[in-house]
Amino acid sequence: MLRIGAALLASPVIEATAQQGGAFRGQIKLGQTMPYSGPASALSAVGKVQSRYFRMVNERGGINGREVVLLSLDDGYNPAKAVEQTRRLVERDRVLAMFGSMGTAQNAAVQKYLNTRTVPQLFVYAGSARFADPKQYPWTVPGLTTFPTEAAIYAEYLNRVKPGARVAVLYQNDEFGKEYLAAFRQRLQEIGSAMTVSMALTYEITAPTVDSQVISLAASQADVFLNITSPKFTSQAIRKASDLGWKPLQVVPITSNFVATVLRAAGLEKCVGLISATPTKSAGDPEWASDAGYVEWLAFMKRYYPEGDVTEQLNLSGYNIAVLMEKVLRDCGDDLTAARVLRQATSLRDVALPGLIPGITVNTSADDYRILRQLRLQRFDGTRWVRMT
């Protein structure tokens, strides 16, 4: 069975296996925490699509003859709950590894615990550089582009097109926002930029709106708006800035550049000119209509997740990381120990994934755990993201 949030969903594949008297020769248990409830519940799309993915893997015979069981539990986007659920998965359910858990604060809260117990914390769905630090946390591997990598690309681009500009920043008052802003400022300093952060305001993840912050930022008349927010607040900030008539060059992060759920909520006409970056193909974008990897994902969605939204970027990115996790487990063969899983995850070479932009591949090494180091800059034209040359 697959545990989705608080409910048990029976997999027909696993039930059929039991009735046949055990066609699999064992199980591979993976643990995960997701915000199935709480202020960031929309992000749980990642866990939902990954559960369907491993259902497909089991239907096709599992991994090296073993059934994959993904135990995906609700943490409400609460670090304390993430600790409780992770301890349950490790100590009661005896998972081989934690996989793809969501959120910076949630993963940070369990990182020392998992590393002390030598439980792989793989492909963390968060961008903090602390999840790509093999010296301090050798059992943790990131699943996203790190904040410093992304922030540096924006700093370099803005310095090139808006030298001397004043930058207004809205950022989440937690490790995500603080680290991102610090990395942006550091890169400006490193390249000797004349750009300045003229105003930086925070918001809490539990806040109803960020309207008051955007009003203050707009009053600064800054030339650039660095909108370092999570999806709900990205939509609000874009909409409010437009309503106020404030038209700076605006940058939104990878985690909030989704057309279907973020930009549409803001109003597509208010998003024209937005700048972002990405390593992945965009869900719902006709650019990829005939791309083999994208078509493969669409076929998966149609068969295993027909109620899922094929314009939702989280469904594509979640699928992508599940493909990577499957590869790591297959490459372990019959040596399914924590040490071997970690070794495979940290020795990936030029791995092309179906959701990555052609030419961008996954590479890891024992001293560099970052899985993605390349990004494509893009501009929103009112309908879709367009590649910038």
Strand line-up across the major sheet:
2-1-4-3-5-6-7
**What percentage of the residues does DSSP assign to strands (E)?**
15-25%
CATH fold title of the largest domain: Rossmann fold
Q: From the 3D coordinates, which CATH architecture of the largest domain would you assign?
A: 3-Layer(aba) Sandwich
Report the sheet with the most strands, covering strand number, pairing sense and barrel closure.
7 strands, mixed
Protein architecture, described:
- The protein is of the alpha/beta class and 389 residues long.
- It folds into 2 domains: 191 residues, 3-Layer(aba) Sandwich (Rossmann fold); 131 residues, Rossmann fold.
- 39% of the residues lie in helices and 17% in strands.
- It is built from 12 helices and 14 strands.
- The strands form 3 sheets. The chain has a 7-stranded mixed β-sheet with strand order 2-1-4-3-5-6-7, sandwiched between helices.
- Strand 5, helix 4 and strand 6 form a beta-alpha-beta unit.
- Helix 8 runs parallel beside helix 9.
- The longest helix is centred in the last third of the chain and has 19 residues.
- The chain starts with a strand and ends with a strand.
